[in-house]
TrEMBL record:
CDD domains: GT9_LPS_heptosyltransferase
Annotated protein name in UniProt: ADP-heptose--LPS heptosyltransferase
Species per Swiss-Prot/TrEMBL record: Planctopirus hydrillae
Keywords: Glycosyltransferase, Transferase
BP GO terms, sorted: lipopolysaccharide core region biosynthetic process
Keyword Transferase: yes
Gene Ontology molecular function: any one: ADP-heptose-lipopolysaccharide heptosyltransferase activity
Matching InterPro entries: Glyco_trans_9 (IPR002201), LPS_LOS_Heptosyltrfase (IPR051199)
Length: 327
């Protein structure tokens, strides 16, 4: 489609990763537009177009087919694990450092969350009567080290029912994903588009999930979120909280709705000072450094890391109760 001519410099920013990473990448686009409002005409190419939809800071989303000749810069980080270990700053700030180096500009995180924009029509078409909490009880099969036991999820949902909390379960029903079906919930697993899932999260009283896209969406909509994180990733890398060290940077405003990031860093030898960054699980020590072999003896049927099993349903339910009392 023809684009309106402007005096701004057109640039093409590309990002091809999963929805959660894409939500994080929207923060640097917002802050580039706010920090240099008359300088750049920002174009986006990549995956997850639903996340960029209705974004006032971009001129056009191109998907995989984008024009040649426009200055092109990648927003994907080469080695997030090394970045997180080297400096104790939030994942969002990594996009700012990378794009600052590419553009030769000073670009800092201004708001401690991604940038999502729903239309008024979308906001008025929520498929569930409120109030409700959203639960994401699964994730990618290629990263089972992030997953909490199914029976823990069911136990938590049962305890939430005794608190009078309606639970809506969402999740992608796609190859490479697993989402155990829970009873006593409004089951929307596989029944929403990515955009519709954002609408459901935006209208929720709270969200409970592992480290996944829902926590980033909850932060963008400033919703309470309880993240069952374990010991895989360091808290400073992903927690939407106000830490004494200011891991969002000096110019960033405070987090208005801090999340409860339930981690086990420091409780086990394998995550004593940092996250282990394992991607999968194995009951045997097969010398694959990507696999967690420190599994819970209580959850061997699902091969759950010990760091995740340390977070009991009773403990998470108490946090839910605390959050509910503040709403």
């Amino acid at each position: 489609m023809p684009l309106e001519r402007t005096d701004k410099q057109p640039i093409l920013l590309t990002h091809w990763r999963a929805p959660g990473d894409t939500i994080c990448a929207t923060s640097v686009v917002r802050d580039l537009a706010l920090s240099y409002p008359d300088r750049f005409e920002i174009h986006i190419a990549g995956a997850c177009g639903a996340i960029w939809e209705n974004n006032p800071h971009i001129a056009h989303f191109w998907g995989a087919e984008f024009p040649a000749g426009m200055p092109r810069m990648e927003l994907t980080l080469e080695n997030p694990q090394a970045e997180a270990t080297r400096i104790q700053f939030h994942y969002l700030t990594s996009f700012h450092r990378r794009l600052s180096a590419q553009l030769g500009l000073n670009l800092e995180l201004l708001k401690p969350y991604g940038d999502l924009h729903l239309t008024e029509i979308e906001k008025s078409h929520v498929p569930v009567d409120d109030p409700y909490w959203v639960v994401v009880a699964g994730g990618k099969t290629s990263n089972r080290a992030k997953l909490w036991p199914t029976r823990y999820w069911q136990n938590l949902v049962d305890q939430m029912a005794t608190q009078g909390i309606q639970v809506v379960q969402i999740g992608a029903q796609l190859p490479g994903h697993t989402h155990p079906r829970l009873s006593g919930v409004v089951d929307l697993v596989g029944q929403t588009t990515l955009r519709e899932a954002l609408v459901v999260i935006s209208n929720a009283s709270g969200v409970i999930c592992p480290v996944t896209f829902a926590m980033h969406a909850a932060a963008a909509f400033q919703k309470p979120c309880i993240v069952i994180a374990g010991g895989r990733e360091p808290w400073w890398w992903e927690a939407y909280t106000n830490s004494p060290g200011g891991h969002f940077g000096k110019k960033c405003e405070p987090v208005r709705v801090p999340h409860h990031f339930l981690h086990t860093i420091g409780r086990l030898n394998c995550c004593e000072k940092d996250g282990c960054w394992k991607t999968n699980v194995s009951p045997d020590n097969d010398h694959d450094t990507r696999k967690c072999t420190n599994l819970s003896p209580e959850c061997l049927t699902e091969r759950v890391p010990q760091c995740m099993a340390l977070l009991s349903p009773h403990f998470v339910s108490k946090v839910v109760s605390e959050v509910k009392s503040t709403l």
